[in-house]
Amino acid sequence: MDDREPTIRRRELGDGLRAAMQGADFTGKQLAHKLKWSEGRVSRLLNGKRGGSEMDVVEVLAVCGATAEEKARLLALCREADTPGWLQKHGSRLPKQLVTLVEHEDKAVVIWDFQTIVIPGLLQNADYARALIDETGNAPAGEINDRVAARLARQALLSRRPLVHFTFFVHEFALRLPVGGADVMSDQLHQLLRLAVRPNLSLRIVPTAIGGHPGVAGQFKLMEFRDFKPVVYLDSETSCLFLEEDVEIAAYRRILSGLADKALDEGQSKEFIANLAVELYSSGERDD
């Protein structure tokens, strides 16, 4: 059977099968021996490159002793493994940790992020993240600390080796939205300036003065990988959407190209943030 370009679902299926194998304390060689398969067949199934059948998945999970819940999840993925894109519905609110997003961020070599209203999650400090979650009122009070911790843990990506390259386009609205008050915003703006000097991070501001811009449809993240095609990530209050078809990726690349033409360059962006921090400080002095 020929290898194929793995879809998001097929990669998640492979990751789930690998986790089951590791949970049973098997190596790929040992699992192949148990199943009477070749090691290459096991490897391709775990890497999402082999079109395994439901029976293949059932055999792996039976040998590994997976739970009934995990079997049901992975078999559902197997049935739709070749369907491009993935809308994930999460009920009344997004979970504390978006597993599929985190796994793709971990594998990315380039990440492009455009935000219109709030500071990107990977650039938020703890006080800003906590204030943002609290002020929106969409998360139970008992989950706020866990959500802040999960958000901050993702920031390890910024210094992961080998370095991932990030480009953040942030609209001026996000810098001026007074999340948490003047002190919190001042600290957050200074956090942006500290991060903006990193060699693998480009931070560019989309100023309000330009008016309409290519990203008016809203925020998104485009992730590029070494071993498979790019993925675009979109989210809302109760669901998230992963896009991977060529025409979809091309559309978001056009938006990024347009934003690159409209946004301030890196130097201008740092100066803009610094001036806004001074403006915020001066305003706070007058209020005192």
TrEMBL record:
One Pfam match, by short name? HTH_31
InterPro entries listed in its UniProt record:
Cro/C1-type_HTH, DUF5753, Lambda_DNA-bd_dom_sf
What domain of life does the native source organism fall in? Bacteria
Looking at the record, the residues that make up the DUF5753 domain are: 100-274
Q: From the Swiss-Prot or TrEMBL record, give the protein name.
A: Helix-turn-helix transcriptional regulator
